[in-house]
Amino acid sequence: MSEAGRRTNVVMAKLSLVGDLLMLQLTFLLLSFGIVTLFPAAFAFQRVLPYAIGQEHPALMRRFFGEFKWCFKRFWLSGLALYFGGVALAFGLFFWASTNGPVRIAALAVLVPLSGMIVGLYLSALAVMPDAEDDATTRSAFRSANLFLLRRSLAVAGGVVGLATWFLVIGRLPTLFVIGSGLVPALIAYWIAKPARRKESGTVSI
Questions:
Q1: Helix (H, G, I), strand (E, B) or coil at 72
Q2: C-alpha 68: how far from its chain's center?
Q3: Is 182 exposed, middle or buried (0-12, 13-18, 19+ CB in 10 A)?
């Protein structure tokens, strides 16, 4: 194959990848309109993402809906709790950030690290979701996420910073929400899990 042909194939592969990711993002938006379906849709997105990135996507959309059904059965209740807990935490942050006095400093000193820890745990849950067993439960997924957070704390902290930066960008350009609301957290979680996955693969190959 000529050099021009190889370059064309590389460009087409990258365009195919971008198209798959945007298709998954739009599907995520449609599935997450209901509050109860938000986190199951995010977890399903994460389980399908490695297939899209690896361009191993026979029946990619069918796989997405199958994973969504699997995630909804197991995580809808915990996802609902995460949603209302996140709303309450965000309200507390905005409330104390808009007040004055020493109590404000004390409250933010507690809420800001707590928010970072919860976001880090969420990213950790996304990171371990592709490797979750078929019989996984909320408890087993939470245990795996905690273990991942302990082992990859620096990478997760970087992911939290990256996700916070993304939220700031959305605040300036809200239209980006449509193309990145589910995709950006999924890619960040995929990135922080990649070195651990490589290490496990290397261990197995030995």
A1: helix
A2: 14
A3: buried
User: Which contacts of 94-100 are long-range, i.e. CB under 8 A and separated by 24 or more positions?
Assistant: none
Amino acid at the residue 3: E
Distance CA 28, CA 42 (A): 7
Alpha-carbon distances, residue 113 vs 68, 91, 94, 127, 146 (angstroms): 31, 15, 15, 21, 16
Structure-block tokens of residue 168: 């700031």
Instruction: Read off the DSSP letter of residue 57.
Output: -
pLDDT at residue 205 above 50? Answer: no
Could you tell me which residue, 200 or 176, shows the higher pLDDT?
A: 176
Q: Which residue has the tokens 């939220």?
A: 167
Long-range Cβ contact pairs of 14-23 (< 8 A, separation 24 or more) = 16/55, 17/52, 17/53, 17/55, 20/52, 20/55, 20/57, 20/60, 21/52, 21/183, 22/179, 22/183, 23/60, 23/61
| Separation of alpha carbons 115 and 121, rounded Å | 10
Q: What confidence tens digit (pLDDT) does each residue in 97-150 have?
A: 888 888 899 999 999 999 999 999 999 999 999 999 989 999 999 999 999 999
d(CA 2, CA 175): 41
**pTM for the predicted model, two decimal places:** 0.88
Give the N- to C-terminal CA distance of the chain in Å, as an integer: 35
